[in-house]
Give the backbone structure.
Amino acid sequence: MWGAVAAGKAKGGYDNITKAAAKMAGVKDKTYIPNAANNAVYEKLFVEYMKLHDYFGRGGNNVMKTLKEISLGLHS
């Protein structure tokens, strides 16, 4: 929303944050109820996600940093 305010109305944005929020944000009257039958599957998936997070995100190896460096080299 702040980006739209920074752009300004003349460039397709908004004059102020209040106007941007009125158009871009809102509360929906909808309730989500968890499906208890899916919980076991989600628990298994979360365990695997945490392994990936720790491996790639906490220095288990540097493959993600290496890929980023290679990617940055393509864009320079």
Remarks:
- The mean pLDDT is 87.
